[in-house]
């Protein structure tokens, strides 16, 4: 099936325009989080997104969990289209730009109780284990792979700062929810137009207004990674004076903190 739009065209229609609009608005808003802390956090998350997601997609695609419409992609690197790698970077930018509009801070020491960190670690590990059990069934393979893949990241983020994330939960919920809803709509259109096709064999068959729940969960989880990662990075920079003395790390964080314009907090 020849899709109505190429994967690159999908970026041009659905991904790049909101990035441009959100970025332009944030650059003009005094209250937006538009400084070196936010951008350095986004840069770190974008690099990690590429590194962490690449092995996963290159297992899922040859397994037949999803594939692409005829002529929808320009080229592939390994099994993954180059447009997919581009999306690994563009989605964090889109989600981060939403976060920059709604971001807030809370006063909380980095020295959290061990029990709080343990709770976060256990929560993320439970997600991973749930995914592992679902991998055994063909119909839950995509769902299980998502949870198994997401669990380690959630465990790290929650073990580091679940308490802080709870303090700023309204910001996190809004920054995750808005781009997730938008990408659900865009993904539903992309599937309808045949840009990519989701396997019926490896999915549960449950859908959210025509969008497979696995796809809905993918965008929810990835946006959670982005928002939590940048929020926690900002918290770390704010409280860098509490860190043990590691000369190089301390200098880097202090430099980021000092370069942040006070009027754009």
TrEMBL record:
<protein>
    <submittedName>
        <fullName>Lycopene cyclase domain protein</fullName>
    </submittedName>
</protein>
<feature type="domain" description="Lycopene cyclase">
    <location>
        <begin position="44"/>
        <end position="98"/>
    </location>
</feature>
<feature type="domain" description="Lycopene cyclase">
    <location>
        <begin position="142"/>
        <end position="225"/>
    </location>
</feature>
<feature type="transmembrane region" description="Helical">
    <location>
        <begin position="39"/>
        <end position="65"/>
    </location>
</feature>
<feature type="transmembrane region" description="Helical">
    <location>
        <begin position="85"/>
        <end position="102"/>
    </location>
</feature>
<feature type="transmembrane region" description="Helical">
    <location>
        <begin position="6"/>
        <end position="27"/>
    </location>
</feature>
<comment type="pathway">
    <text>Carotenoid biosynthesis.</text>
</comment>
<feature type="transmembrane region" description="Helical">
    <location>
        <begin position="216"/>
        <end position="236"/>
    </location>
</feature>
<dbReference type="InterPro" id="IPR017825">
    <property type="entry name" value="Lycopene_cyclase_dom"/>
</dbReference>
<dbReference type="GO" id="GO:0016020">
    <property type="term" value="C:membrane"/>
</dbReference>
<keyword id="KW-1133">Transmembrane helix</keyword>
<dbReference type="Pfam" id="PF18916">
    <property type="entry name" value="Lycopene_cyc"/>
</dbReference>
<dbReference type="GO" id="GO:0045436">
    <property type="term" value="F:lycopene beta cyclase activity"/>
</dbReference>
<keyword id="KW-0125">Carotenoid biosynthesis</keyword>
<feature type="transmembrane region" description="Helical">
    <location>
        <begin position="114"/>
        <end position="135"/>
    </location>
</feature>
<feature type="transmembrane region" description="Helical">
    <location>
        <begin position="172"/>
        <end position="196"/>
    </location>
</feature>
<keyword id="KW-0472">Membrane</keyword>
<keyword id="KW-0413">Isomerase</keyword>
<dbReference type="GO" id="GO:0016117">
    <property type="term" value="P:carotenoid biosynthetic process"/>
</dbReference>
<dbReference type="GO" id="GO:0016872">
    <property type="term" value="F:intramolecular lyase activity"/>
</dbReference>
<keyword id="KW-0812">Transmembrane</keyword>
<feature type="transmembrane region" description="Helical">
    <location>
        <begin position="141"/>
        <end position="165"/>
    </location>
</feature>
């Amino acid at each position: 099936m020849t899709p109505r739009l190429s994967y690159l065209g999908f970026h041009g229609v659905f991904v790049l325009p909101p990035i441009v609009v959100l970025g332009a608005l944030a650059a003009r808003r005094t209250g937006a989080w538009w400084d070196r802390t936010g951008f350095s956090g986004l840069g770190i998350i974008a690099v990690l997104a590429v590194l962490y997601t690449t092995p996963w997609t290159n297992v899922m695609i040859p397994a037949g969990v999803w594939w692409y419409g005829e002529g929808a992609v320009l080229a592939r690197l390994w099994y993954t289209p180059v447009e997919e790698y581009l999306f690994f970077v563009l989605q964090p930018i889109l989600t981060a730009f939403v976060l920059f509009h709604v971001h807030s801070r809370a006063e909380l020491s980095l020295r959290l109780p061990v029990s709080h960190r343990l709770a976060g670690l256990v929560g993320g590990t439970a997600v991973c284990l749930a995914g592992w059990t679902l991998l055994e069934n063909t119909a839950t393979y995509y769902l299980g792979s998502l949870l198994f893949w997401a669990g380690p990241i959630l465990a790290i983020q929650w073990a580091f700062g679940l308490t802080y994330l709870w303090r700023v939960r309204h910001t996190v919920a809004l920054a995750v929810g808005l781009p997730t809803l938008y990408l659900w709509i865009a993904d539903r259109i992309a599937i309808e137009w045949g840009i990519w096709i989701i396997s019926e064999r490896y999915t549960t068959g449950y859908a959210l207004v025509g969008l497979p729940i696995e796809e809905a969960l993918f965008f929810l989880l990835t946006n959670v990674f982005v928002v939590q990662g940048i929020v926690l990075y900002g918290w770390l920079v704010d409280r860098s004076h509490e860190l043990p003395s590691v000369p190089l790390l301390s200098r880097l964080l202090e430099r980021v903190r000092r370069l942040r314009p006070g009027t754009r907090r």
